[in-house]
Each structure stands twice: as C-alpha cells, then as structure tokens.
Design brief:
single chain, 115 residues, mainly alpha, 70% helix, 0% strand, rod-shaped
C-alpha cells in the first residue's frame, strides 16, 4: 500500500493596506519592473498587479459615488434656483402692474389734488 504524502499547506499571507500602498508607491516611483520590485519585497509580481487593479477599481467606484453626490447636489441647487426665479418673476409682474396703475393719467371726471 502506497502512502501519498501531501505538501504542507501554505498559509495565506495577509498584508496591511499601508504595506500594499507603500509597495505600489515603490514600484511606481522606482521605474523598475514589477518583477524586480516584487523580488525585492519577497512577493510574487502578480500580487503587485492585483493590488494595483484593486486600487484602480476602488478609486473608480469612489469617484462615481462622489460624482453621484455632486450631481444630486447640483440638481437640488437647480430646483432651488428655479423656485427663486419663479418668485422673482411674479414679483416683477406685480411691480409692472403697480407702476402702470400709478402712472396712469387721472380721468377727467376725477377731481385733481389742489395744492
């Protein structure tokens, strides 16, 4: 009977967000390949690529949520300005009517003020 030996399971290494950011910054600022930087750090190059991809997708989703919030804020501001504009137009019409009434020449049958 043959006994099959298994390789010991590797424990999955976990890295902090700060370490990932520093590794990506080192890679970007050094101008060297991902393979060289990864070898220097003791990790595999695909891991650097994966971290960069995750960073890009999180930045895109963050920017989209920010732009969604800014669009909502702009729409609210537009609604407020339209309401204010309608109120100002109404006040303008009232003033135009008042001016028209006040600037009319008195009718001939009405007594004029005697000063």
């Amino acid at each position: 009977m043959k006994t099959q030996l298994r390789k010991p399971a590797r424990s999955k290494a976990s890295y902090t967000d700060q370490y990932k950011q520093e590794a990506l910054e080192l890679w970007r600022s050094s101008g060297r390949s991902a393979a060289k930087v990864a070898a220097e750090l003791g990790i595999r190059p695909p891991l650097l690529y994966r971290w960069a991809q995750l960073e890009r997708t999180s930045n895109v989703s963050t920017n989209q949520s920010k732009s969604k919030r800014s669009v909502d804020a702009l729409e609210a501001e537009i609604r407020r300005l339209r309401a204010e504009n309608a109120k100002l137009l109404e006040q303008r019409e009232v003033l135009k009517k008042s001016l028209g009434i006040l600037s009319e020449v008195p009718q001939s049958g009405m007594p004029e003020s005697s000063r």
